[in-house]
Amino acid sequence: METSNGKVVAQSMWMVWESIFDIVTRFRSESIWRFGICKLVIRRHYGKRIVCHDGSQIAAGDWIGELHLDNQQVIELTRAVGADRAGIMTARMLRRGMKQISQAMRTAPELTKVQAITGITLLHRGIIHGLGFEQHPIASKWAKGFSKVYLRYLLRILHPEGKQRVKQAGEKLEPRMLVISRQALLERFTKKDKDKDKDKEPRMIYM
C-alpha cells in the first residue's frame, strides 16, 4: 500500500517534533545511548515503587533505562516493504537491540547502575513476545491519558492503516508500562545468546 502525500507530510512534521523532543530529552536524562533501532534514555525513576515478578523493586530515585524506538527507521521500513513486513523486521531489530543493551549493561560502567528497562506502548501484545517484559498499569491518570492520546496519534501517523486500526480497536488500545528488571534482562539474554551482527558496540549519543 502506497503512502498518501498527506501522510508523508504528517510523518515529516512528526519527525520534526521528535527532533525537538530529543533536545528536551537531553536535559531530563543523564545520557542517551543508541542500539540499532533502540534508543535508551538513562534517567531516574519518578513515581510509585514498581515491584517486578522476580522480586526486584524500582523505587523513586533509582536509575532506569527508558526504551524508545527510532520512528524514522520504522517509517522508512514501512515505506520500503509495507506495514506487515516492516512489523516483522522491527520486532527482529528490537530483539537485536535488547541483546546489545544486555551486553552493554554487563560491560559499560555507565550502565551498571541501571536497575530496569522501561517503556510505554499501545502494542504491548506483540512487542513483549519473547523479550521478557512485564506489563504494569500506568499509575498516574494524567500520564495514562496523555500516553493514550499521544500513542494513538503516533499509530495513525506511522501505520498506513493506522486510522482504521485505531477506530476498530477502540478502547482496547490502552497504554501499558513495560518493565524488565536488570536481573531478568541479563538472565534472558545470556552471553551464549549474544548478537552475531556487526553493530554490537553500544553508542552513547548524548551525555
Structure description:
The protein is globular, with a radius of gyration of 17 Å. The chain contains 7 helices and 9 strands; from the N terminus they run αβββββααβαβααβαβ. It has one domain. Helix content is 46%, strand content 20%. With 207 residues, it is α+β, with helices and mostly antiparallel strands. The strands form 2 sheets. It has a 7-stranded mixed β-sheet. It has a two-stranded antiparallel sheet with strand order 3-4. β1 and β2 form a beta hairpin.
User: Sheet with the most strands?
Assistant: 7 strands, mixed
Summarize the helix and strand pattern as letters.
Answer: HEEEEEHHEHEHHEHE
Number of helical stretches of at least 4 residues: 7
Low-confidence stretches: none
| Count of DSSP strands | 9
Averaged pLDDT, please?
78
Strand content: 15-25%
Which outline best applies?
A: globular
- Protein structure class: alpha+beta
Helix content: 40-55%
Q: How far is the N terminus from the C terminus?
A: 40 Å
In the residues, how many domains can be counted? 1
* CA-based gyration radius: 17 Å
Neighbour order of strands in the largest sheet = 7-8-6-5-2-1-9
Offer a concise description of the structure.
With 207 residues, the chain is an alpha+beta fold. The chain contains seven helices and nine strands; from the N terminus they run αβββββααβαβααβαβ. The chain has one domain (5-206).
Secondary structure elements and pairings:
Elements: H1 5-27, E1 31-35, E2 38-44, E3 50-51, E4 57-58, E5 63-69, H2 71-81, H3 83-107, E6 116-121, H4 124-127, E7 134-136, H5 141-158, H6 162-169, E8 176-181, H7 182-188, E9 203-206
Helix pairs in contact: 2-3, 5-6
